[in-house]
Write a structure and sequence with these properties.
Length: 482
């Protein structure tokens, strides 16, 4: 299913115009905060490193978009509605009263939290971020602030986030919540591009104080340890409204929040969406969020899934630039994750089981040249984004005071049995295939230093068709001259 140019334009114009209208944003100070309201306003770099450590090690997480929108699943009045599935109420301009009737069909009896967490865990994912409330305003949890929630408004009459939190706790999976703090099409929040139903009368401050603040308090108080709060589309947010929300983060010491709150707050992480920035972000933690097909929320007819090769190489590319990959699944209204997504996650997990050491706890490449020049490529919204032009290999690394380990993730295996690492000047203490090492067959590879860098003699056949990892162990400080 392709997002049409018209729907992309409508979404982007609506978002772009609404994201920056209304109240001015405040120039954030160097630390990215405005004043002591920000939970980490006085954090030292060492304290920040400690707080971010698990997230930087994780490198790979599962995004879950699940809500009432999974009931229409992309179709309204027998018409396929273009655009991302969770925006169907907006894109089809569905009146509130009519949209709310979908909740009576939302009965996810196939939902099994343990199963979802195991799918994520077996894929090699280390954290889950699930929509607790998306722009439709429907709380996927038991909320006292609005009856438009899964316990009060559906035949399911149960809180799935309780089950998910318990399953994450049991499986050692970190849990985060996405919360649409500004857009809320049913509880009087903002609407990208403005309201479409006369019933959508809203007072933004009333919405912030009577819906957003109490609900964020609920999701940060009632589900155990919450490690991430993922804000989204800061339409009509200003510093005053953001300051009403930020103190709530103190309910979860150490919680990580993203750059989408609004009010001039940079948060902890950049959030490039549906694309991988060509060079990552210097001195900022960042996370590319991406769909496997063309929609975040379930659409029954969107089978346009990216290949496992693309997904895996994206993960490696992102890690080689020092970022995290938040890869999305969109469960259907019965509580099942689409087969196309489950299958791909199993295949990614099989690679991660053998090669995860080349991703977890690694930092960005010391080279960079391997990504080639930045070329403009369209993201999932039709935006042109600078992305890498070369996909032959990527490097991830681990550095300690004693030395460095380089992981050469090779996509295109050399035909002549020689792989050259340009600009590397160090003597190589040890070189081997990660896969053979993982299988207990440690096979030392011959390396030769030369003017052009280090040449490694590799077997004729690549150990893996998508990405094969050669490990280089180096004593002392890395010496790269490019
Ligand atoms: C936002 C949401 O609107 C979307 O439904 C999904 O949850 C995604 C992860 O986040 O998507 C956006 C946000 C900003 C833009 C486009 C889509 N934008 O600025 O063009």
């Amino acid at each position: 299913m392709k997002i049409t140019a018209k729907s992309k334009l409508c979404l982007c114009l609506a978002l772009a115009s609404a994201l920056f209208t209304g109240h001015q944003t405040f120039a954030a100070d160097a630390a990215g905060t405005n004043d002591s309201v920000a939970p980490y306003a006085n954090e030292t770099p060492a304290q920040r490193d400690e707080r971010m450590a698990w997230w930087r090690d994780a490198r790979f997480g599962m995004f879950i978009h699940w809500g009432v929108y999974s009931v229409p699943a992309g179709t309204y009045h027998d018409k396929k509605i273009s655009g991302i599935g969770e925006w169907i109420m907006h894109n089809a301009k569905i009146p509130m009263a009519e949209y709310q009737t979908y909740a009576k069909e939302f009965n996810p009896t196939n939902f099994n939290a343990e199963e979802w967490v195991k799918i994520a865990k077996n894929a090699g994912m280390k954290y889950i971020v699930i929509t607790s409330k998306h722009h439709e305003g429907f709380a996927m949890f038991d909320s006292k602030a609005s009856d438009w929630n899964i316990v009060k408004a559906t035949p399911y009459a149960h809180d799935p986030l309780k089950d998910l939190a318990a399953a994450c706790q049991k499986e050692g999976m970190r849990l985060g919540f996405y919360y649409s703090q500004a857009q809320d099409w049913n509880n009087g929040g903002s609407e990208a591009g403005g309201p479409w139903d006369p019933a959508q009368k809203h007072d933004m401050d009333d919405y912030i104080h009577n819906i957003a603040v109490p609900q964020i308090r609920e999701i940060l108080s009632n589900y155990g340890k919450i490690s991430v709060l993922w804000f989204d589309t800061s339409i009509n947010m200003n510093k005053e409204r953001a300051d009403a929300i930020l103190p709530l983060l103190k309910l979860q010491p150490g919680i990580i929040y993203n750059n989408r709150l609004g009010g001039g707050y940079k948060g902890d992480t950049e959030t490039p969406e549906q694309h991988i920035p060509a060079n990552g972000f210097k001195d900022r933690d960042w996370e590319t969020c991406m769909t496997m097909n063309d929609t975040w929320g379930y659409k029954s007819y969107d089978k346009n899934f990216k290949s496992t090769e693309t997904l895996l190489r994206n993960l490696i590319d992102i890690a080689s630039k020092g970022g995290n990959y938040l890869l999305n699944v969109g469960p259907d209204s019965t509580g099942l994750i689409p087969d196309g997504e489950v299958e791909r996650l199993k295949e990614v997990g099989a690679w991660m089981k053998v090669n995860g050491e080349a991703i977890y706890g690694t930092t960005a490449t010391p080279f960079g040249a391997e990504t080639g020049s930045a070329v403009k490529q369209k993201d999932g919204y039709g935006h042109e984004q600078p992305t890498s032009s070369s996909w032959v290999w990527r490097c991830t690394k681990k550095v300690t005071p004693e030395g460095a380990t380089l992981y050469l993730n090779i996509f295109e295996w050399p035909k002549d049995g020689k792989f050259v690492v340009p600009g590397l000047k160090n003597k190589i203490d040890e070189a081997y295939l990660l896969k053979s090492n993982a299988l207990g067959m440690h096979k030392h590879l011959k390396t030769v230093n030369g003017d052009n860098g280090v040449t490694i003699s590799v077997p004729e056949t690549a150990p893996d068709k998508i990405a094969s990892v050669v490990v280089l162990k180096i004593k002392g400080a890395l010496d790269v001259q490019q």
